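Narrative summary of target 7.
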Amino acid sequence: MVDDSPTMRAMVSHRLSRYDDIEVIGTADGPHSAREMIKALNPDVITLDIEMPDMNGLEFLEKIMRLRPMPVVMLSTLTGRGAEATIRALELGAFDCYEKPKTAFGEGLGDDLAELVRTAAKSRRRPRFVTPAAKPAADYEPRPDAMIAIGSSTGGVETLIELLSGFPANCPPTVIVQHMPETYVPTFAARLDRLSAPQVSVARSGAPLEPGNVYVAPGGSHHLEVTGGTLRRCRLVADEKMSGHRPSVDRLFLSVARWAGASAVGAILTGMGADGAEGLKKMKDAGAMTIGQDQDSCVVYGMPAAAKQIGAVTVQLPLSRIAARLLTECRA
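Modeled conformation, tokenized:
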């Protein structure tokens, strides 16, 4: 654990130590002391605070990922100011982020953090942007009826940034569900918009699906769906969680299967769990081409594995080849 707060170090360390399969082998009050401890103790996972004196968590994370890539769980605060830093941490290669307890008693801190640490320990860390996505042809033109639906979770921030770097400005309408707290979504969408050629925005209910636009599910209390037949639109639905999530990839894919059928292409990317597998199968059954990210390029090969297991994946590809295949399937 790396955190400048003695209270936070003691509280999180105590909570994690209750689990027989997790051992907290060291705590550090900042990056300088943590550097030596990492060399000496060789931990499986690091938890890292973002705001610390001397060197902040982002600077330290960047050094870790460059010199000694390993699973890092950021302990962050769900605030507007912290959202940009959190998205940047995920882009740099942090495994995931976990909300810091709001009180000194640590209410709500427990099983979900332990599960995150366990999964992080089993995850694959890969160098970022090893093979840049191929740039689309200058004369690319999508079919009028084509659209793309994408689902991702843990590891999805850096994965989506890399994927969309291969999209042209006039890409097919694209809808995305990325599992993340609602507070982070506007910052994430704005960052995708700055780093890619298409226009990327948070999906609004009733917004028409137009070429050159990427729509990211807002999360929180709503699912993102597609509706409308020939004139497709985004629809936000306040409903119970599906497959353990809201927004749910399954919920999005099921609506795409219904309203777009064989004219759509679906992709399921890195992430824990099985959300999206059943929906992708429905898309495939409706005639859609479906793509699963391969194990070697996933941070967590959970969602794509679940989809492949039930026969929902038409073809499995490394991340570096997915953008080009999506575009080819949607080409006029």
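The domain at 147-329 is CATH 3.40.50.180 (Rossmann fold).
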